[in-house]
Amino acid sequence: MSPNQQGLKGFHRLSVEERLQRISEITGLESEDLVCLKEFGNLQSETANGMVENVIGVMGIPLGVATNLILDGQEMLVPMATEESSVIAAVCNAAKQCRSSGGVFSSVSGTEMIAQIQLLGLPHPHQARQILLEKKDQIGKICDAIDPLLLENGGGFRDLEVRILETRGGTMVIAHLVVDTRDAMGANAVNSMAEGLAPEIENWTGGRVNLRILSNLADRRLARARAVWKLEDIGGEKVRDDMLAASWFAEADPYRAATHNKGIMNGVSAVALATGNDTRALEAGAHAYAARSGQYSSLSRWECDQNGNLVGMLEMPMAVGLIGGATKVHPMAKISLKILKTQKAEKLAQVMAAVGLVQNFSALKALATTGIQKGHMALHSKNIAMMVGAMGDEVDQLAQRLVELGKIRSDFAEEELTKLRAGKN
Ligand code: MEV
Predict the structure, then answer these.
(1) How far, in Å, from the CA of 272 to the mean position of ligand 1?
(2) For residue range 182-219, what is the model confidence (pLDDT) as tens digits?
(3) CA of 287 to the centre of ligand 1 (A)
């Protein structure tokens, strides 16, 4: 039965309470489920309801703080929101191991975003391209008039690129508006410009505008991080060489690169979520950038320095902002930014690149030495303990017991919890 047949017509117009009632009637949620759904915690129901459609609750994700990171000479505390148990610990460990060489160093390429305008129906695409390029100053003025606030904040239109694209459906002309969005992620700003400009572009070229939307391949907004891990801090040459071999594997093989980059995004997305940024935009940009040569590869590069130390480098698009969307609305995002002591999107991008790099170090080191499961499962043991019903102190006790036994599985956990409660171990 479709939702409307189930009597959900106008569902979006109901209050949160009424929606909850309807869903509960239809799905038979238990009273304890309703109690849980009604706990909105630090995101008030009015705020949540204003953020997305059809709200019936909020989904809590742990927020932790990564310690030990020195970034460009400054001690940082980094808020990270993630459900994956090993992610924050991995940042703390890796950041600690590069402190003796000064921590992580970073840079950015700028804060420019690209909006794409797709033009169809142009039998003479080269003429259309030239005409548009001749209008660059006028286009810049129209764009800036659409977002005067951006202009006031030092941003605005910067450049125009026009590409001729051969596709399965014929030749297209693609205009790129390059816009400096400063401390905003910029999606709304550049989308408005692309939409506002479209009628003029049609007039000038005689073509028909189809899509007008930003590109998540934010390759004019790159963040970079670099750190040196001294041989003595990582356990010697064998560890270094095996980590290097692991990184070359990821450079050469898309199957491995996907997982390698997923590890990097474990860190990047956790900071994005904690600060109310768009994790999907970042993920899309990262993977598109990783495939820019035509072959999907790793986002990081690893080398030795002249003293044989291990050097890690990461460069990736980092379209993040501080002045819009959930960043300004979600109370936890606002608190996260206070913990970061960051008022600049560029700085946030640098922190995120640093976190991605150290996350990558941790994964490579674990994989090239003990394997990932030892540390991962030790942390996961707490989840297992909670899953089988351990409460309060029992969680740590049971988790430790499972690690000692080397059996981090729910069936053992159930047995061990029963024994623990019976005072048998
Ligand atoms: C797990 O979430 C991330 C890793 O798989 C990353 C990697 O393999 O490099 C450990």
Answers:
(1) 18
(2) 999 999 999 999 999 999 999 999 999 999 999 999 99
(3) 15
Q: Is 37 left (phi over 0), alpha (psi -120 to 50) or beta?
A: alpha
H/E segment holding residue 113 = strand 112-120
Query: Residue 363: CB within 6 Å of ligand 1?
Result: yes
Q: Given this model, what pLDDT does residue 2 score?
A: 55
C-alpha distances (whole Å) from 100 to each of 94, 96, 408 are: 12, 8, 35
Could you tell me where the beta strands, DSSP code E, fall in 292-358? 300-304, 310-317
Q: What is the pLDDT of residue 407?
A: 85
Tokens of 296: 């999907």
Domain residue limits, the chain: 3-51, 82-109+222-369, 112-214, 375-424
Strands, E assignment, 168-238: 170-180, 208-214, 222-229
Name the residue at shortest CA distance from atom 10 of ligand 1: 363
Which pLDDT score, from 0 to 100, does residue 77 have? 98
Ligand 1 closest atom vs CA 256? 8
**Does residue 10 carry a pLDDT above 80?**
yes
CA angle 49, 51, 52 (to 5 degrees): 80
**Which CATH class for the 112-214 domain?**
alpha beta
Closest residue to atom 3 of ligand 1, CA basis? 263
Q: Is residue 396 over pLDDT 80?
A: yes
Reading the block at residue 275, the tokens are 């600060």
pLDDT of residue 153: 94
Of all protein residues, the one whose alpha carbon is nearest to atom 1 of ligand 1 is 263
> Chain-wide mean pLDDT for the chain?
95
Contacts for 90 with CB less than 8 Å, ≥ 6 apart: 266, 267, 358, 359, 362, 363, 366
Q: For 140-180, write each residue's pLDDT tens digit.
A: 999 999 999 999 999 999 999 999 999 999 999 999 999 99
Look at domain 82-109+222-369 and name its CATH class. Answer: alpha beta
No. of helices (H) and no. of strands (E), the chain: 18, 10
- Residue 105 in 3-state DSSP? strand
Q: Which atom of ligand 1 is nearest to the CA of 366?
A: 10
- Ligand 1 contact, 365 CB (< 6 A): no
Q: Cα of 91 to ligand 1 centre, how many Å?
A: 13
Residue 226 — φ and ψ, nearest 5°? Answer: -145, 140
Would residue 72 show up in a list of annotated catalytic residues for this protein?
no
